[in-house]
Amino acid sequence: MASNGTIKCAAPMKATSNGVFQGDDPLDYALPLLILQICLVVVLTYFLRPLRQPRVVADIIVSVLALFFWRNNLGPSVLGRNEKYLITIFPERSLTVLDTVANLGLLFFLFLVGLEINPASLRRTGKAALSIALAGITLPFTLGIGTSFVFRATISTGVSQAPFLIFMGVALSITAFPVLVRILAELKLLTTDVGRMAMFAAAVNDVAAWVLLALAIALSGTGHSPLLAMWVFLCGSGFIILCIFVAPPVFKWMSQRCPEGQQVDEVYICATF
Known about the structure:
- By secondary structure, the chain is mostly helical.
- It contains eleven helices and two strands, in the order ααββααααααααα.
- Strand 1 (68-69) and strand 2 (75-76) form a beta hairpin.
- It is globular.
- One of its GO terms (biological process) is potassium ion transport.
- It is found in: Membrane.
């Protein structure tokens, strides 16, 4: 951040270096630094295995111990309080690469999970999953609203009451769907009735939470037009309709064009992702 209030962009990082013997510092380049960051997370996660918790729980703990929550303005935590460590291992200019690789990994993981799920089995758990989702979002949402009244005179000073009520309710009731899927996959429960019901309920929970979040943004009306939230909601609804009614026939047509055992055309792979 510059002194006059303008934002100063970090210098871009080159992908690879010429090597240590050429006088380059590998940590000044994106690929070696990314490898070091991943190795650090994997090693710290290994030491948390005695907790006997799912791998994703260890990953979350490692992120609190080792990483710097720069994007969410949460400030440094534990190791991140060491400024030299922070600048060397997790510099600000490397966060874009790390975030991009993490989202690509999440994309491939959820795609592989989707391949193992039978949509017909999800329909069989519809009513029970809806009941579970309704119960799972109602109680935490109510507690979140009650908590917002407690914090009215502290952290919510100068904030509109209605948006703050909804934000607190959503914060306590939303389900991290990718985290739940990782836990179910690790416990080998994805293809069981319990796993399918949990995923369906979590999906309904997430949709409801994002709708409420869009409502909170519309009610706040600070910095953006209320129509922006409606536009985001309509785009999301259109995407869901596209995935349900348009994508399946297209994928069926592509599968018919790719004989079993033959090499798949790259165009179809790109279209799938």
